[in-house]
Design brief:
Layout lengths: L10 E4 L7 H4 L5 E5 L10 H8 L4 E5 L8 H13 L4 E6 L1 H13 L7 H5 L11 E5 L11 E6 L4 E6 L7 E4 L9 H17 L9 H23 L4 H14 L13 H13 L3 H15 L5 H12 L6 H18 L15 H11 L13 H10 L2
Parallel strand pairs: 1-8, 2-3, 2-4, 4-5, 5-8
Antiparallel strand pairs: 6-7
Helix pairs in contact: 3-4, 6-7, 6-8, 6-10, 7-8, 9-10, 9-13, 10-12, 10-14, 11-12, 13-14
Length: 385
């Protein structure tokens, strides 16, 4: 196991009715900006619960944050924060709303061009408006980490930043807020959570038994409850387990002491930035191709994954690895998320564009060994056609 230091400061309020806890977390004299996406929270009763919890507290609304939050949209919110002297941000939505709100929080206190936050991956952020969250989509884990992914629509750049200053002060996780999600968002969320786990697990062995067993447990939860959520969207226990699994997948805990890959995410981000595919869709396309391309380097962990997750113990190493990858692909498809570029109307013409964006962003040494170059990405995307 590798050395590590770990801390997570986000207060979690989990369960039915926990939105009421907002009143204990937001200062009574705060000036709050409530951020959200397309407005579903006003149809499913979540906004009403939030407003009730903020009774007596001054707040302003800012809606319309995109599924891949646009820098241009977020800057409009930054101006509101400055103009209205906002001193607390409450993100009500999924990972995109939370990511966007993290950027708003940092940009509102940033003395230079806010795009520099993204260009420097958050390294120069020294302050941010305090942030709390009400999660309505189990997927990204953003509710309990300090990272965010932002898209600059004008240049089709989808990039990320990290800063301890945007770690949410608290997050409310009420599984009932996910009951009304469309099947597409549920499927994407399960795929996103799944890939978060395996990008920290299917690398190479370092004898980190706790992290491995924890990761395997999260994967098994997703395999078991993902299809159940599609079949019965209002099953509280299923939604609860998916929500907590997604949070635990990317709150830093299973990342301790182990190598991480993230090639699938970085390649997928470029596809989303260029062609507008859902984040979960790009992950479902890229992950199997990365594993096929890197199966020799990942052999030890792929065999462990094949045995512990899929019960594959018969046959030679290559056949077990191939079966495990195909089982993974089948699961994504079962969740309603196609795993081929062609399923989204894309062909080999996307390959040079993705390679160019990776080079432009300096992402030329991907994977746990930093040995996936744009030339390797070309071969990986051929496998994903």
């Amino acid at each position: 196991m590798n050395n590590f230091s770990y801390r997570n400061t986000t207060q979690i309020h989990f369960g039915k009715g926990q939105i009421a806890k907002i009143k204990d977390e937001v200062p009574a004299d705060a000036r709050v900006l409530i951020t959200y996406g397309g407005g579903s929270i006003k149809k499913n009763g979540v906004f009403d619960q939030v407003a009730q919890a903020l009774d007596g507290v001054s707040f302003i609304e800012f809606g319309g944050i995109e599924a891949n939050p646009h820098f241009e949209t977020l800057m409009k919110a930054v101006e509101i924060v400055k103009k209205e002297n906002i001193n607390f941000i409450l993100a009500v939505g999924g990972g995109s709303v939370i990511d966007g709100s993290k950027f708003i929080a940092a940009a509102a206190r940033y003395p230079n061009d806010p795009w520099e936050i993204i260009q420097t991956y958050g390294a120069k952020v020294t302050a941010a408006v305090p942030l709390g969250c009400v999660l309505t989509l189990a997927a990204t884990g953003s509710e309990m980490n300090n990272g965010a992914v932002i898209t600059k629509a004008a240049t089709q750049d989808k990039l990320f930043f990290f800063s301890e200053h945007v770690q949410p002060r608290f997050s409310v996780l009420d599984p009932e807020t996910t009951f009304s999600l469309p099947a597409r968002q549920t499927g994407n969320g399960v795929v996103d959570s799944f890939v978060h786990v395996v990008e920290q697990y299917v690398t190479y062995p370092v004898n980190a038994k706790v992290q491995d067993r924890f990761a395997e447990g999260l994967i098994l939860n997703l395999l078991e409850d993902g299809p159940k959520a599609l079949a019965n969207p209002t099953d509280y226990d299923v939604r609860a387990n998916l929500m907590w699994t997604a949070t635990m997948a990317l709150n830093g805990l299973i990342a301790t002491g182990v190598p991480a890959d993230w090639a699938t995410h970085l390649i997928g981000q470029e596809i989303t930035g260029l062609y507008g595919l859902d984040h979960g869709q790009t992950l479902a396309v890229v992950l199997p191709a990365v594993w096929i391309y890197k199966k020799e380097q990942k052999k030890g962990k792929l065999l462990q994954y094949a045995e512990r997750i899929w019960g594959l113990t018969d046959g030679d190493d290559d056949s077990r690895i191939t079966a495990a990858i195909e089982n993974t692909r089948t699961f994504f498809e079962k969740m309603g998320v196609p795993t081929r570029l062609s399923a989204y109307g894309l062909d080999e013409s996307v390959i040079p564009a993705v390679m160019q964006k990776l080079e432009q962003h300096g992402h030329t040494q991907l994977g746990e060994h930093a040995d996936i170059t744009p030339a390797d990405v070309k071969e990986i995307l051929k496998l994903a056609l």
